[in-house]
Amino acid sequence: MRIEVHVPILPESVSDATLLDWHYATGSPVLKDAALIDLETDKVVLEVPVPESGTLMEVRRNKGDVVSSGDVLAVIDTSPQEDSNSPAPVSGIDLPVAHPAVVAESSPPAEIPAIQQPVSPAVRRLLMEHQLQPGDIPTTGRITKQDVLNFIEQRIATAEPRLEDRSNGNQPLGLTNPSATSARPGERRVPMTRIRARIAERMMEAQHATATLTTFNEVNLQKIFDLRNQHRARFEQRHQVKLGLMSFFVKASVEALRRFPIINASVEDNEVVYHDYYDIGIAVTTERGLVVPVLRNADTLGFSDIEKAINEFSARGRDGKLSFEELTGGTFTITNGGIFGSMLSTPILNPPQSAILGMYAIKDRPVVEDGQIVIRPIIYLALSYDHRIIDGRDAVSFLFTVKEFLEDPARLLLDV
Q1: Strand pairing class (289-291; 284-286)
Q2: pLDDT, tens digit, 9 for 90 and up, residues 384-399
C-alpha cells in the first residue's frame, strides 16, 4: 500500500516551513517513527517521522522548498520488498523530485554519502556544512556537537598557512597588492536561516516600536556564593542537579515582579495588559541563533525545579528539540551575556514583553564594607524597559529590589 507523508499541522503563529534536510534517499527502506525530514520554521526545527515502515518511493519536495501544513512531502510503499539491499540513510544532499517511473534509475547506493550513526539535528547540520561523516569524528560514544567543533578547529589549525605563504612573495602581510585576488580570501554568501531571519525581524521591531531605555546596577554575590558552597553537595545529592546562579536570579526577579507588576505587563493597542502569572523567558544560545524558551509559572517552582528546567532547555535547544509551545508566550526575560565574558551591554526587548534583565560577567572587585576595602564577586545588571508604560522610578526600583534579594538571599526563603 502506498501512503503519503504530509507536513504536520503548524501552529497559528507559523505560516510555513522550509525543508531543511532529507534523511533518506529515494528507494531506501525506512522504519516507522524514524526521522524522515527536517523542517525549519522561524522558531524550531521539526522532525517529520516515518508514519509506517516501508520503502521511500517518491520525494515530492526538494531541500530548500517552502511548504505549508498538509502539503505532501513523500510517498512510502508499505508493501514487503524482495530486495532488502537498499541505499542507506543520507543527510545533507539535494534530492531531486522523483517519480515512480524513474525510481529504478536513482543513483546506486555506493554513490550516496551516508550518515549511518544516529546523530542530533545540531550535529547533522555541522556535518553537512563541513562535508564530514560521523566516521571522521574521533569519539568513544555518541557524537556530540562539541566533538565536531573540536575536530573542525583542529583541522583548521593544522591547515593554517604560514604568514609568508599568505603574502605576495616574501612581503609582510598588509603590503601586498590589494587588487591581486590571490592575496585575499574569498567571499561566501549564505542565506539566513529561518530562525536568524526571525530574530532580525523581531530585533528591528523592538527597536522601532518601543521607547527603550536601560538602567544599571551592581550586585555583591558574596552571600549567594557562601550559601552555595555551604549546601552545594547536599543539594546536588538530594535533587540530582547542581545549584547554579540562574535559580537565584529567577526567584529574585519573580519577587520583584510581584512588587512592581507594571514590569510584568505589556502594551496591546491602547491598553496595558497586566499579567498575574510569571512566565519567565530564559535566553539560550544555539548554533542557529538565540531562542527563548519559557519557564511557566516560575513563582510556583523551587530552586531545583528551575535548575532542572534550565538545564533541559539548554540541552534541547542545542539539539534543536524545543517545541513551539516552549518558545511562545513569556511575560519577562532574563539573558546572560556573562557566559561569553561580556562586562556590560544594553539588552533588547523581547516583544511584546516590556522589560528584559541582562546578567553579565562576575568579577572580583574592590568594595567598601564597614569602612574597609574588601574583594567581593560583583556582577553588573542591566534592565531594558519600554518607557511607554514603565516610568524610570519603577524600573530603577525594580532593579534595586532584585539587587536586595540577591545580596540577602535569605529574604527569598523567608518572603520578606
Answers
A1: antiparallel
A2: 999 999 999 999 999 9
Give the pLDDT confidence of 119-164 residue by residue, as tens digits: 666 677 677 767 787 778 887 667 777 777 778 777 766 654 444 4
* SS3 at position 155: helix
The helices-and-strands tally (H runs, E runs) of the chain is: 9, 18
Collect all residues with Cβ–Cβ distance below 8 Å to 248 and sequence separation of at least 6: 224, 303, 406, 409, 412
Q: Identify the three-state secondary structure at position 336.
A: strand
Q: Tell me the three state secondary structure of residue 129.
A: helix
Contact 160, 5 (CB under 8 A): no
Amino acid identity for residue 124 in this structure: R
Residues 6+ apart with CB under 8 A from 118: 142
Question: So which residues are the catalytic ones?
Answer: 387, 391
Given a contact cutoff of 8 angstroms between Cβ atoms, the answer to whether 40 and 193 are in contact is yes
pLDDT computed for residue 392 by the predictor: 95
The model carries a pTM of 0.64
Helix segments in 167-298, DSSP class H: 194-209, 222-239, 246-259
CATH tag, 195-414 = 3.30.559.10
Is the separation of the CB atoms in 313 and 294 below 8 Å?
no
Helix (H/G/I), strand (E/B), else coil: 36 = strand
Domain coordinates in residue numbering, the chain: 2-114, 124-171, 195-414
Residue with cell 561523516: 133
Residues contacting 105, CB < 8 A, separation 6+: none
Per-residue confidence (pLDDT) for residue 192, from 0 to 100: 78
Mean pLDDT score of the chain, rounded to an integer?
A: 81
Chain segment 24-43, per-residue pLDDT in tens: 888 888 888 888 888 887 76
- Is residue 34 within 8 Å of 50, Cβ to Cβ? yes
Question: What CATH number does domain 2-114 carry, 1.25.40.10, 2.40.50.100, 2.115.10.20, 2.30.30.30?
Answer: 2.40.50.100
Q: How far apart are the first and last CA of the chain?
A: 67
2-114 and 195-414 in the same fold: no
